[in-house]
């Protein structure tokens, strides 16, 4: 695990600026004014990660309906994420935390130092940049869509 701890709900979300699948930097601070879901995942093209992100893809309307921008983040290189996004047709941004390796995952307390990848951590940041919900699941355990739906309902309440 990372030395950093998972940010506390109610505190400002850690900043991040990462390249998307085309190398364009995406900064969390530039997205203020609308809520954002930051979804860390271990590896592109792996079984559980593909299942989770395809489920988000197939249910992206739940995020769109409440104006939440979805960002999926891994330590994979940008080109790997681009190939995976094209293969799976993801309608949301995939961001590369490849270099400096795992810096964003470390800031969110979800970087596994022993294996060099992000754990399954999801964070819902409100329009003011405050963390409103988070979940971090152990290795091998997918995050249920119902948890996202509950967090989105709470945010829009």
UniProtKB/TrEMBL annotation:
PROSITE patterns noted in UniProt: THIOREDOXIN_2 (PS51352)
Signal sequence annotation: none
Coiled-coil regions, chain positions: none
Thioredoxin domain mapped to chain residues: 7-157
SUPFAM superfamilies on file: Thioredoxin-like
Keywords noted in UniProt: Antioxidant, Oxidoreductase, Peroxidase, Redox-active center
UniProt-listed Pfam families: AhpC-TSA
Domain of life, per lineage: Bacteria
Protein name as it appears in the record: Peroxiredoxin
Gene that produces this protein: ahpC
């Amino acid at each position: 695990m990372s030395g950093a701890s998972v940010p506390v709900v109610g505190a400002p979300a850690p900043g991040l600026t990462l390249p998307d699948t085309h190398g364009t930097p995406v900064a969390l601070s530039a997205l203020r004014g609308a809520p954002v879901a930051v979804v860390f995942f271990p590896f592109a093209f792996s079984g559980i990660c593909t299942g989770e992100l395809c489920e988000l893809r197939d249910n992206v309307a739940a995020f769109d309906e409440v104006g939440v921008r979805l960002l999926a983040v891994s330590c994979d290189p940008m080109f790997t994420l681009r190939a995976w996004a094209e293969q799976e047709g993801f309608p949301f941004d995939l961001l590369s935390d490849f270099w400096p390796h795992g810096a964003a995952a470390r800031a969110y307390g979800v970087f596994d130092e022993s294996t060099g990848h992000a754990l399954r951590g999801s964070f819902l940041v409100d329009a003011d940049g405050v963390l409103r919900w988070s979940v971090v699941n152990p290795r091998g355990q997918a995050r249920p869509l119902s948890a996202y739906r509950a967090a989105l309902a709470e945010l829009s309440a």
